[in-house]
Structures are given as structure tokens and as C-alpha cells.
Design a protein that fits this description.
Layout (H helix, E strand, L loop, with lengths): L7 H7 L27 E6 L5 H16 L3 E6 L4 H13 L4 E5 L6 H10 L4 E4 L11 E5 L1 H19 L3 E7 L5 H14 L6 E8 L4 H14 L3 E6 L5 H10 L13 E6 L2 H9 L4 E4 L2 H16 L7 E4 L2 E4 L3 H4 L4 H5 L2
Parallel strand pairs: 1-2, 1-3, 3-4, 4-5, 5-11, 6-7, 6-8, 8-9, 9-10
Antiparallel strand pairs: 10-12
Helix pairs in contact: 2-10, 3-4, 5-6, 7-8
Amino acid sequence: MNIKRMPRLLSLLLLPLAFVACNKSGPASDGNSPGGAKAPLTIGVAFETLQTEAWVAGFEKIKSECARQNIKMLEAIADGDASRQFQQVRNFINLKVDGIIIVPKDAKTVIPMIKAANAAHIPIVLYNRSPDPSDAKYYVVTADNFTLTRDTVAHLLGQARQAGGKHKAMILIGDLGDINAIGRRDGFDAALKGQEDLIEVVARVPTEWNQEKAQAGVVNALQAHPDISFIFTSSDFMFPSIQSALKSVGRWKKAGEPGHVWLAGFDGDATAYQLMREGYVDATGVQDFYFESEAAVKAIVDLKAGREVPQKIPDPGFLIHQGNLKELAPRMWGAQMKK
């Protein structure tokens, strides 16, 4: 996730807009309109929050994809409140939408929402976050957090090995109530397995996706281990915390400069792109939010048309690094947000 915080004002402005149709439409219809023409589909889109660049990028792409296909889109932003999100899903159900796309707050609280949609025979697609195991029926579009993290860290390990020496490493771990954070942690550990001659992990910083907690953890880790030279963050949105902490001890150096700390992340946000352009960040695993948004809308359209849809629609994402930055930047959602 995601993930540079957007201004609080954005959230406040968007909350009153819950259930506003992107083309000013009303409730979903029964599929028929005067004159025998088939009415457009209506999709309810419920996001946990829009206070991250990642969610904004995905939300805006869903909106544009709905507009492109003449689909009515109803909007709901829960502002991190699972109870509010459940009520928003119930409202979508009462409006008889044709499908629901949801970014849930977490893997547990979304299960009753899925079951409510199931009871109403409304297909529901989870966006970028899978639920805990249950008998509820859903579809999910999400990145392979484990594999993309493993490959990103493996690339950084290759760079560190070429530089020579042994490195002390730190990982910033996300909220472990989020299955995405677990996948990224496990991918990091898998990449380092068998690399004990090169890397010693001396700090595991719990962040709970909180910028202030991340910065305090990095500061403490650098005080305890001032020679840390390898850092992976489970989300790019925590790069500013890392930057501030490294600057405070004179360790914020570009690649190739003496004392450079190897840095890699996950998401592909605008901050990561800018820091890569400037030479400070070495690599990041990019979630393809544009693909995920298109795939989520397509899943609803296909289901309503009676076509088969796989339960899990994988976003393979891609690794971007200093060697392929120019080539792959056009596919990186954070690079497009910088324009």
C-alpha cells in the first residue's frame, strides 16, 4: 500500500461526496431503460481511505475506467473506519448495484461485508488486499507481495555483493494485520535466506503503516547500529522517515558516494520515483495499480455478462531500479503522478 500521506483536507472534502455518481446518475436500475436499451451497469466503489498516493492513483483509475465504459460509479470513503465501511457496503446493496469494488480496512472486518454482498447476489471484488480464509465468495485483484519483495531484495543483494564486504540490514515492517505486510516481510526473509555471509539483519522496525512510528524506529536502530548499510521498507511512503533519520547522522548519500546506504522499497510511489531519479534509492517493487483498477472493473463486467472470472487475479508488478528506470518509468504510477 501503499504510500505517501495526502493532505487531511483531501479526505475532508471527499467524505461528503460518498455515493456521488461519476456521471451524476441515480440508483442502479433493473437493467432496462425506456426504449428497450440496456441500462449501464452501476458499480459501488468503497475505499478504506484516500490519504495515500497509492489509493488515490487506484481510485482515479477506476473512476476513469468506469467513465470510459459508461459505467455508473458510486463512491464511498471510510476514512479508516471499518464500521463505516460496512454501512457503506450495505448502502450499495440497498441501492442494488451491479457489483462492488472494495479496498477493505483489513482482512478480517471485510468478511461480513463479503457475506452481505453474497446474500444479495452482488459480486464483490477486493482491490489490492485479500481477506482471511472463510466460506465467503469473492474475487481479488492484488500484487504478489511475496515474490515482488523477494525479487526486489534479491536485486539489492546483488548490488551489495558487487560492492563487497558484509552489511548490516534493517527492514521496516508494515501493519501485520494487513496480509500485504506479511507477504512483504516474508519475501524479505526469503531473499536473505542463505545470504548470511553478506547480510546480518540487526533491526526489524514495526511501523503499523505510521510515518512517525517509522521514523522513531529508524532513528533508534541507527543509534544502536550506526553502521547499518542496507535498508528495505515495506512501503515507499516511509522513505521520508528514512531520509530524515539518515540525514540526521550524515548517512544520506547517493549511489556511488562513499557511505551510501543501499535502499529499496515497495509500491512505486512518486517519492520513490523522485528519490530514484536523484540517485538515493536503488530499487523498488512497483505495484501496477493501473492494471489492478482495469482488472477490477473488468471482473464485474465479465461476471455480469456470465463470463468466468478467476477468484484471484494476480498483478505481477515489476522491479524498477537504477539500471532500467528510464525504460520503465512510463509504467510506474508514481512517475505519472509527478507530472
